[in-house]
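For consistency, the fold was encoded as tokens, as this record shows:
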Amino acid sequence: MSSTIPLDLPRAADTLEARRFQVFTARDLDRIPGLDRMSAEQRFAMQVVAQVLPFRVNEYVVNELIDWDRVPDDPIYQLVFPQRGMLSPENFDRMANALRGNADRAEIQRLAQSIRATLNPHPAGQMELNVPRHEGEKVEGMQHKYRETVLFFPSQGQVCHSYCTFCFRWAQFVGDKELRFASNEAEQLLDYLRSHREVSDLLVTGGDPMVMKTRNLAQYLEPLLERGLDHVQTIRIGTKALTFWPYRFVTDRDSDDLLRLLDHLVAAGKHVAVMAHYNHPQELSTPIAEEAIRRLRATGVEIRSQGPLLNHINNDAAAWAVLWRTQVRLGIIPYYMFVERDTGARRYFEVPLAQAWEVYRGAMQRVSGLGRTARGPSMSADPGKVEIQGVTEIHGEKVFVLRFLQGRNPDWVQRPFFARFDPDATWLNQLRPAFGEPEFFFEREYRSMIATAKAG
């Protein structure tokens, strides 16, 4: 990318100095500051879980975001460090016995793969239904679930500055190429977009695209300014970097180049939205986090926040209210509260839908109208994004009130429907239609979509 693009960059605060990025993985558990406070049994449990689910954390998160006096209850500690309950007792014991028995690396890998296969590594039809075709061939590294929005997974961005323990894309990071979405074919992406005029939004996702060097990100984004791609009005970038490595926008060697790139896209008429992942107000507690937000917003980029409701981390209306109020103060638009997806460590993090709605409702009652832009609780389920609008009683039957915020068929969007109240249900497929209906209104058509995809 040209470094001559004009931009009056806001100066970084003088007190903020560049920082060397230092990362820790499962091999480094014994040398992570703070873990010496944990018992040998707790550290061994981390090693067990880290053989199955990805673990990666950086020095900034360890030293600046975690309150080690509150561990193990600290929310950021829970966000990044493996916990025993993330695996079923049976699977935990299988892996623990293998490690205690000094099994070789190949055996550990085979066992890990067999456990991962039970964890629904690609939920919501990502492999079966979301991968598009172009000129008769599947397009690798892309998903096209909803008419207006295409997801692209650049190969250089399929890692994160740290890994979230709840991540629904954990399968991207375990080293299994068959489970991974990734592409370095910029021209293939552009060809697909040129031939699909219905697409208004491109979401660059991962992993985290903000781990990429600016010059690599630019090769995917700058061509979107060419003729024939004017219908792609919005460029979204999904990232956790504002939490896990805010230096990316402030003092990294090419942070100014990154801001120039984003400014250039905005000036050329694109709406650029950084889809920032936040889970707890603690993530906004450092000066560098606020400075990164300030510099990013100065380019004309919109920052929208989203994240799931998680047991052990943010299962609390007051925490969400503080998060949303702080974001509004900093100029971030609250966008989504998600329900933890049915994958990976869901057993540790999931919250009953009825409780999720109560938390959402309680948080909404504590914020002004500007904070009530957050939609939810929303399930990114197989047929689409389904929002829990409430719990009520109709004709003597207690029900969930639901609606589609997005659907595989756009005609489903905003259509209300009802499910029998179930205090223990945590996901859409555990709900049953209310009022004696044999199935939900969308199910027959969705089954037809699955059959068509299998036949193709």
